[in-house]
Sequence to fold (355 residues):
Amino acid sequence: MKHNFGAGPGILPHEVLKQAAAAVVDFNGIGLSLLEISHRSAEFEAVLDEAVKLVKELLGVPEGYSVLFLQGGASTQFAMVPYNLLPEGGKAAYLESGVWANKALKEAKFFGEVEVVATSKESNFTYIPKDFTIPADAAYFHITSNNTIYGTQLHEFFPSPIPVVCDMSSDIFSRKINVADFGIIYAGAQKNMGPAGTTLVIIKDEILGKSGRKIPAMLNYQTQIEGGSMYNTPPVFAIYVSMLTLNWLKSKGGVEAIAKENVAKSKVLYEEIDRNPLFKPVCAVEDRSDMNVCFVAENPEHEKPFLKLCDEKGIVGIKGHRSVGGFRASIYNALPITSIYVLIDAMREFAEKNS
Ligand SMILES: *Cc1c(COP(=O)(O)O)cnc(C)c1O
Fold:
């Protein structure tokens, strides 16, 4: 077995993969594959209902919110959010805490004025800006809860006079959140929820219908809500595997239980990075992510040989994003702490050989 530290598509629980594989051949013993039955069949409707139910249960989604499984990835949400919420001539506020936040605000510029309330671009996004005011006259305030590429995470959310829209692609279901604090939460499934191909969107219904825009059906949240995520053929496989993964999470005790494990996992790894003389962290300590742990070698010449050692130990997906360099250990829900210990042992072995 490999130790999968890949950033996304990320690790999924092995038992989920086995169940998914079986359903591709014969779904629930009906003699047909999950992939060759109607999305309007009772069998698939039960899957979608169960997936929505699990999202509501695991995150404690209150009344007045809709849960959608859409397509197009988080990147389509970058455009869908302003299309639905930003009136002609209106303004939206964005916190620029990384490349994904930057891509989101660029899309919003197609629809209206964008006020960037703060940015940490000048430091290559090694911290999350916290000193700013949210303009009360903007239609919404957009944030990214976990900056996958840089390894920073919002450990507290900002009180806001306007609806908060949050890209939670890389830390949804990793910790407890208060859904009532948000107007929209969205997340591409492929980091911490399931396979690529579906995007979870949780919307407070009352914020819709205020932009006055004419919106094409597929990009209109209202159409998607009315169609129950089935305005057109939904991504059946991605929804099914997400449902299995959420069920696995529930069986492990849910979000609060996994959050404890996630904190324990990141803590031991950061301790080793801080202690080991050959490696150093890259981000502000208070903003360190529990999902993506970024670090570099003190001596850049050590990077290649360390990656080679990792490869020998079955540690995969650890190379940092090209815009940061070094290493990134993505330690999503399904990664067991035993994999973290294998990585720590490799770091210690490497330090012994090279210092
Ligand atoms: C990966 C990622 C995205 C892009 O997701 P797609 O589903 O590929 O469009 C957006 N935001 C964040 C925070 C991400 O980690």
Observations:
- The radius of gyration is 21 Å.
- The pocket of pyridoxal-5'-phosphate is lined by residues 8, 73-75, 100, 144, 148, 167, 169-170, 188, 191 (CB under 6 Å).
- The CA atoms of residues 174 and 259 lie 6 Å apart.
- Residues 254-275 form the longest helix (22 residues).
